[in-house]
Amino acid sequence: MNYVIQKENRPVYLQIYKLIRNDIINQVFPFDSKLPSKRFLADELAVSTITVEHAYALLCDEGYAEARERSGYFVIFRPTDGFAASSAETVPLAHSQLEASAYPSFSLSILSKTIRRVLADYQDAILRKSPNGGSTELRSAIRQYLARNRGMQVEIEQIIIGSGAEYLYRLIVELLGRDKVYGIEYPSYDKIEQIYRAAQVDYELLPLSAEGIDSSALAAARADVLHTTPYRSFPSGVTASASKRYEYIHWSRQTKRFIVESDYGSEFAVSSQPMETLFVLSDLDNVIYLNTFSRTISPAIRIGYMVLPRQLVKPFQEKLGFYSCTVPTFDQLVLTELIHNGDFERHINRVRRSKRKELLPR
User: Is the peptide bond preceding residue 309 cis, with omega within 30 degrees of 0?
Assistant: First the structure.
């Protein structure tokens, strides 16, 4: 193998993961082929088998490979030159119990200290009107956070702040147009369908399989816009496989198609790195990324944000740039401080460690 890793660049397992992932995508390791054994790869790269095991675990978490008992690791990623075969297994409509209470609350003492610090440091600035797209401080903090944690390299003007996902969904309809057909997962978070219905736009319900939206349904869809929650769809709990995420991108290659990616809750993935976003995987500049802080901090924190593809920044400013930001300046500054001082990411890491412990055999 011709892999070269830089041991001074940590973590090493992520380098190994990316090298193997790229070979899987490029069909060096085709579907159902066996990956090199952990011991062989460890010897080749002069690293520990534990390091390789971490890389393989992440490949499994991401849906590129799977471990087969006493056989090793095998590729489950399918080529992206067409739609994958429709899955025979469909998702029952019963809810999968993804309740908000599954995640520990953010520390009230840390939040109260941060509020007092913002009051002391910013003083009269908390009374000023926010720029329409959101405060520069918060958008800058989110920009840096996305670069660190999601591999998203974006500019401040691509980030729009709003009071929760529902408000941002409506902005997307106004931006992309009411003449578009919107495809949504079925089942999905009920407010998504309610918002499209209230906006009086044409939408389609696309049934979920065990790996994501059913391939035959997606291929036959009339939709111009695909609204998906690839990390973990609510209420089904379905996570889109790596093959399925590339299928979504393949679907969006037709002219003037867009993807709306709700990344809700992905920060609490138990794997060592959150799942790759469609925004990062796509090279088409046609994915609108959304997330909120209602699950990571509190449902009472009505702050969400969307990241526009570059091609939509100017149209957004021309059509909707006059809308005032719906989040108070004070709330934005508090959130900015939580991100800047590391409390936000420490909370996420605590929750993820706790969830990993819950999965350990007793």
Answer: no
Q: How far apart are the first and last CA of the chain?
A: 38
Q: Give, in degrees to the nearest 5, the angle at Cα 276 between 272 and 281.
A: 155
User: Coil, strand or helix: which one is 24?
Assistant: helix
Nearest Cα neighbor of 268 from 336, 334, 355, 205 is: 355
Residues ≥6 apart with Cβ < 8 Å to 193: 184, 203, 205
Q: Is the pLDDT of residue 201 over 90?
A: yes
> Tell me: the pLDDT tens digits for 90-133?
444 444 444 444 556 788 899 999 999 999 999 898 999 999 99
HSE-up (13 A, CA, CB side) for residue 268: 23
HEC letters along 142-181 = HHHHHHHHCCCCCCHHHEEEECCHHHHHHHHHHHHCCCCE
pLDDT of residue 97: 44
* Domains within the chain, CATH numbers bracketed: 12-75 (1.10.10.10), 108-352 (3.40.640.10)
Say if strands 72-75 and 65-68 run parallel, antiparallel, or are unpaired. antiparallel
Instruction: Give tens-digit pLDDT for 338-358.
Output: 999 999 988 888 887 776 666
Q: Where are the alpha helices (DSSP H) in the chain?
A: 12-25, 38-45, 49-62, 108-122, 136-149, 165-176, 190-198, 215-220, 242-251, 278-281, 310-320, 329-340, 343-359
What pTM did the predictor assign? Answer: 0.80
Q: In the structure, what pLDDT confidence band is assigned to residue 294 with cuts at 50, 70 and 90? A: confident
The lowest-confidence range among 75-84, 278-287, 319-328 is 75-84
204 class by beta-carbon count within 10 Å (0-12 exposed, 13-18 middle, 19+ buried)? middle
Phi, psi of 149 (to 5 degrees): -110, -20
DSSP 231: S
Distance CA 276, CA 197 (A): 30
Q: How many degrees, rounded to 5, is the angle at CA 46 between CA 40 and CA 50?
A: 70
Cβ pair 234, 98 in contact under 8 A: yes
Asked if 182 and 225 touch (Cβ cutoff 8 Å), the reply is yes
